[in-house]
Amino acid sequence: MGRAGILIAVAGISVAGMFAAPRCHAAAHPVRVDEHSNCIACHADHATEPYVHAALKSGCISCHQVENHDDASYVAVQPKESNGCRECHAAGPVLHPHLPYASGMCTRCHDPHASKFPGLLRARVNDVCLDCHLQGRVKHPSRYLPTIELTSDYRFGHPYARHPVNGSPDPIRGGELSCISCHLPHGGNKLHQLRMGDEIPEDALNQNTETKDVCQKCHMKLWGMDNIRKKKRSR
Ligand code: HEC
Ligand code: HEC
Ligand code: HEC
Ligand code: HEC
Ligand code: HEC
Ligand code: HEC
Ligand code: HEC
Fold first, then answer.
1. CA 44 – ligand 1 centroid, Å
2. If we measure between CA atoms, which residue out of 107, 116, 148 comes closest to residue 130?
3. Helix 125-133 to helix 3-19 angle, to the nearest 10 degrees?
């Protein structure tokens, strides 16, 4: 196993140990069911949130397998590797994959059924991310789990002291600024899973953000200068 392999294995163990959701596979389903049962009749709460997973249209048994033995029913999630998510959502190779994505912890961030939050997220996107990355909240910080420091209202402090991480508009994607305004949640080809630019200024607050790749895309737009640039380019 190479160095990268060892690192991933170590981080994998610590992350799985710290964050994996508890599972119970052994217990029998409280009532007898088979693959033709109307699951929704009893589990309507799994399909009534504002955002419902399109996979539910293919039926509950596209992810759950029902087995009957000894007069009891057992409902398991199948297949076990990444809970079957990859059956329908194939992952393309990237240079910097996000470890919880690459290791199949899909349901750590997503509800497999339905959610109050866009993207079937278990919580507001920044809350999902800060659960693992906020300095102070992380119980077992290690160099395999980088953390960031924010003000106590979780609004400012990253990537630089006065920079907002929410509560302002996202000039590129629309909606509110969040962790995924700058980072790709599943990983990407740029350093630090950044959406834009590899070039990160050392002391950005004192620099002209127009010239720095990672900052300029948003800030040219914030300052209404994106059109000027386009005209220059098309000469
Ligand atoms: C007659 C009502 C009823 C029907 C029909 C029903 N369930 Fe359940 N199910 C329950 C109850 C009650 C529980 C226990 C409380 C809970 O977790 O909501 C449960 C628990 C579960 C659980 C968690 C515990 C476990 O056994 O793993 C799963 C998964 C599940 N049901 C899936 C299904 C699927 C899939 C179907 C359709 C094939 C289905 N249920 C049909 C009533 C029902
Ligand atoms: C896209 C895959 C997928 C589909 C489709 C799906 N489930 Fe699940 N379900 C899961 C996974 C994965 C879990 C394991 C718990 C977790 O990680 O949140 C689970 C857990 C459950 C549980 C127990 C834990 C909980 O969240 O309450 C119940 C009950 C359940 N499913 C019912 C259903 C019913 C009813 C349907 C159909 C309406 C359904 N599921 C369709 C993937 C799916
Ligand atoms: C039976 C096929 C199937 C399976 C299995 C499946 N999905 Fe999906 N999923 C879909 C379809 C279809 C859509 C809607 C089209 C799309 O966005 O690709 C979707 C959309 C999504 C979305 C985007 C929702 C949105 O509103 O933007 C998320 C997140 C997602 N799935 C997560 C999961 C997770 C997590 C699992 C494993 C628990 C899973 N899926 C398993 C079929 C599936
Ligand atoms: C670290 C948290 C996290 C993990 C782990 C994760 N996702 Fe996501 N996923 C997100 C976020 C955040 C979005 C963007 C939601 C939005 O745009 O509102 C997203 C978006 C999606 C979408 C919508 C289409 C797209 O690609 O943008 C699908 C489908 C999806 N995820 C499936 C998966 C599957 C399958 C897995 C596991 C292999 C997984 N996710 C693991 C956070 C995560
Ligand atoms: C379950 C815990 C967990 C959650 C939730 C999570 N991450 Fe991570 N993240 C990790 C781990 C572990 C690593 C380190 C992987 C490594 O060292 O290869 C990481 C790495 C990163 C990195 C790369 C740091 C670098 O310097 O390359 C970024 C950026 C990041 N996560 C952003 C996010 C965002 C944005 C979200 C929310 C959408 C999120 N994370 C949610 C566990 C998590
Ligand atoms: C305005 C853009 C932007 C936003 C918003 C943003 N980040 Fe970052 N993030 C960066 C940049 C640039 C870096 C690389 C520079 C650095 O290490 O500080 C980075 C680095 C990181 C790292 C790696 C830190 C390390 O020490 O290796 C993590 C983890 C991270 N971000 C998580 C998050 C989370 C969680 C959120 C949401 C609360 C978030 N980021 C919001 C731009 C952003
Ligand atoms: C995803 C878009 C985005 C990216 C990328 C981004 N910013 Fe920002 N930045 C914002 C938004 C939005 C604000 C708040 C503007 C407002 O509320 O009027 C802001 C505010 C600022 C401020 C003003 C803070 C204050 O003192 O009030 C500075 C300085 C700044 N950004 C520098 C940077 C630097 C340096 C980078 C590159 C590392 C960067 N930004 C990357 C969106 C972004």
1. 11
2. 148
3. 110
